Amino acid sequence: MSLLVVTSPHAHGPMSTSSVMRTVLLATLPGIAVLTYYFGAGVIINVLFGGLIALACETLALRLRRQAIKPFLTDYSALVTSTLLCVALPPYAPWWLLVIGVSFSILIAKHLYGGLGYNPFNPAMVGYVVLLISFPLQMSTWAAPLGVGETVPGFMEALRACFNPSSFDGLTMATPLDLIRQNKGMMLTDLYASNPQFGAFQGVGWAGANLAFLIGGLFLLYKRIFTWHAPLAMLLTLSLCAVMFYDEGSSASGGSPLFHLFSGATMFGAFFILTDPVSSAVSNRGRLIFGAIIGLLVYTIRVRGNYPDAVAFAVLIANFAAPFIDNYTQPKVYGYRKGPKA
Questions:
Q1: What is the pTM for the complete model shown?
Q2: How far apart are CA 248 and CA 187, in angstroms?
Q3: Which of 157, 186, 263, 267 could bridge 153 with an S-S bond, Cβ 3.0-4.6 Å?
Q4: Which ranges does the record mark as transmembrane (predicted)?
């Protein structure tokens, strides 16, 4: 008797890999739109150029592996990986940064392990961490958002910044998370008042982007692309850590719960990164533990580590732990009942 052996990601009913990936891409549109509004057309340039690189790398990898090209190109998985990576990059990153990041994500983090369904780590976050460690200056050069700068660069300026970086002379500054991490002696209220990129409790533009990704994530939950367990566990754990260590805004404070929930890549990570069905835990109880680990790591690295937005590092560390979590959280076999001890 021959058995059908399949691997993740699994889909039920009318869903397929391509339909799931298309839905994920659709859910990123509100966040991309808000980021574009606040930071300019560089966000769209990143996504479009990164998508072309991803398709080229996917084609190359499939040819080298002697696999059919069309079925894998039309499942949109390469575009999802590149979109998730490019959304997380600074809006006016040079072209070579995009090439290195997307190529590493597709060729190394995805195809070196066997392609879709076999990667033990989230490919987009692997590419992001490689860039962050290798090119910290370029990865920390964020443009001033609308409301801090008078205007944001237009489409042609964004093209010049991407393909001729030396010609770009836009206003850049540290992100709010980085300012909190570097703060040594100011009360948070004074820090907020002295830095125009802070709103009432978060960075200008960042709260709107997080809200937009939250809306996209709720849409994915409505479509049953993933379950609520991992995102909710991450957000609750992050909030709990922020509540426990928030001291009403002294210089040693890591920021309020609202600041952590609506700054950086919190909602983007909760709903679009750690919900990867391949590299996360598989059981509902395992997903709760997986999400809680990520929430704890995000807060710890943000407040005590050297990298202000720790979602990528937290997800990759949790990816390491996912098989261990699965081993101890698998549900009992139907009909199994523990017998009396001998």
A1: 0.87
A2: 9
A3: 157
A4: 36-61, 73-90, 96-113, 125-144, 200-221, 228-246, 258-275, 287-304, 310-328
Q: Are residues 102 and 60 in the same domain?
A: yes
Query: pLDDT digits over 302-339, tens only?
Result: 888 887 778 999 999 999 999 999 888 887 765 656 65
Q: 9 φ, ψ to 5°?
A: -80, 145
Place of tokens 């939950």: 221
Is-contact 253 246, C-beta < 8 A?
yes
**pLDDT (tens digit, 9 = 90+) per residue, 78-115?**
999 999 999 999 888 889 999 999 999 999 999 999 88
For residue 123, give the nearest of 137, 107, 139 by alpha carbon.
107
93 plus 118 within the same structural domain: yes
First vs last Cα of the chain: how many Å apart? 37
Q: Which of 174, 191, 206 is the last residue of a domain?
A: 174
As a whole number of angstroms, the distance between CA 173 and CA 91 comes to 13
- Show the low-confidence residues of the chain (pLDDT under 70): 1-14, 147-150, 166-173, 185, 190, 193-194, 196, 199-202, 248-252, 333-342
Domain count, the chain: 2
The answer to whether residues 194 and 186 touch, using CB atoms and an 8 Å cutoff, is yes
State the Cα angle at 79 between 35 and 116, rounded to 5°.
130
